[in-house]
């Protein structure tokens, strides 16, 4: 019988017995972190089939958290850090049976890290949310001296690292965009809607078939979480603040996930990350070089009225790229990342269902056969 190098978790469904954490945002000493994790590990109940690993096992899977296996990582303004690695779990040495995984580890230096880790586990182990094809599949976890999540996935890269890759074609990017939009539409269909507030390229894996797999669910609200927007997390974890957040009043617009999608789509079609900063004030700053884009603007351009194509010039030589698709995707992107002015006169962003329907009409999406239903003809 194949024996995996791991310790089996209790075969119990996830429960509501996670520790509630006092002093949110308070930095913990190493001793405090280890003591908290040691006490906390007895309270966590994970669903059937999810395995519990030790820090040494995570280290073994990733070759000692080697640079060779390192994929990506994020740090926030408050210093929080997560690191993502490729890993291999040896199921059976004799038959050389190995499972390819992705290992995410967090530094438990703040109480907030536990909130994020808990939220991810709750969503990954929910049979409805976790069963969606564009959600990363949880294989195991660690909360013994380290916070870790292990995903059953043989990913190429994170979306962040794929964005500037010239081999990442227009068709592949539109497949990723369609998958993300389809996931957001599914999450919004929950009662109440489940919304992701930190959808961004670092927390999206791209598998070998160019399907997006989202694992960054740590800053979410609604749905099965049954909680309002976690404002104690927003100021620490959002990598680019949406301009229509009002942290003081506790206001999060319902179209916030559409903005996150639009920002992701913007990076996909421009092959750039730095252009995201323009969305904070709704303008493309003149200091950002745009010579690689199809439309060059020497001055600030207001995104509210921007309708010309900003698709990267290098896509022009690809068979799957059509100029009409480029224009349509640009228009959709700009509508998604519209910002709200001080008196709220800006036209609303499109509904995520409208986003999906407009993507379905793209020639490249029709050619790839990505339509999920027959309601729209190509």
TrEMBL record:
Source superkingdom: Eukaryota
Record keywords, A-Z: Kinase, Transferase
SUPFAM superfamilies: Protein kinase-like (PK-like)
Molecular function (Gene Ontology), one example: kinase activity
PANTHER family: OS01G0588500 PROTEIN-RELATED
Record-given protein name: Probable serine/threonine-protein kinase PBL16 isoform X1
Organism encoding this protein: Elaeis guineensis var. tenera (Oil palm)
Gene label: LOC105043086
